Amino acid sequence: MSAVTSMKMPKRATQVESQAFSGKSLYIVAGVAALVALAANVLDVILGVGETDIFVYGTMQATDWFALFQENWFKGLYVLGVLNIVYMTAMVPVYFGLYQAHRRTHEVYAALALTVFAIGMAIYVANNAAIPMYVLAGKYAAAGTDAERALFAAAGETVLARGEDFTPGSFLGLVFGGIAAITISLVMLRGGVFGKVTAGVGIAGFTFLSIFTILATFVPALYFVAYYFFALVGGVLALAWFALVALKFLKLGRTG
């Protein structure tokens, strides 16, 4: 063995060790992020339990939302989907972790799921009405003339048309997120890393939630039927998926 070769070996070994450490760190971050996504969805469920006010998306005017924000600003943000922003943001490192876990066996499909999710998240977060409506509600309340209030109300209608949950404006963002989750769960099914139970739970859960999104958006008369038949079942399965994925990521972060 030459002196040059012997000098290169430690450097190569260091690179391999560095890559392994980097992979483990990503898995830990992804595991924690999956727990954050789980917490955001659990909080969404908790806040919805016992809710007596019924909000039918696409039927309320901007001034109705402004009144809700004046009464309870957090409730306004929650109903308009601010927790979905938290959830989607947390899922970014989760999808990167899932790509890392499957890049040697199913890189193309894992990358496809990551890309579809990124597009869906960008569409949803950019168009979400929660924060813009919160700002407009404050300006509407502070307006001194009817003309100013009319201006802010018109701006609110534009915001709602672009990104109110379960309306055509938010549909692509929500459904792309569902497609990405189903795709990566199918990758898990054959990937051998997360197990078939986790994959099956993800496929079923996000399929149910996607069906709910479609029905709630385009057949609003069936909103409550879709909620009880699809959203509740899909939501429970999705929560289980987040927990299973988080536990596996944290295990991979410890053992590699």
Walk me through this protein's architecture.
By secondary structure, the chain is mostly helical. It has one domain. It is 84% helix and 0% strand. The protein contains 10 helices and no strands. The chain has helices at 3-48, 62-71, 73-79, 82-102, 107-127, 130-142, 146-163, 168-191, 196-218, 223-255. Helix 6 packs antiparallel against helix 7 (146-163). The longest helix has 46 residues, at 3-48.
Can you summarize this structure?
This protein has helices at residues 3-48, 62-71, 73-79, 82-102, 107-127, 130-142, 146-163, 168-191, 196-218, 223-255. The chain has 256 residues and is an all-alpha fold.
Tags for this model:
0% strand; 10 helices; elongated; disordered N terminus; mainly alpha; 256 residues
Whole-number count of domains: 1
Please state the overall shape, judged from the principal axes of the Cα atoms.
elongated
Largest sheet, strands/sense/barrel: none
**Number of helix segments?**
10
What is the CA-based Rg, rounded? 22 Å
Euclidean distance between termini CA atoms: 32 Å
Number of strands: 0
Q: Portion of residues in helices?
A: over 70%
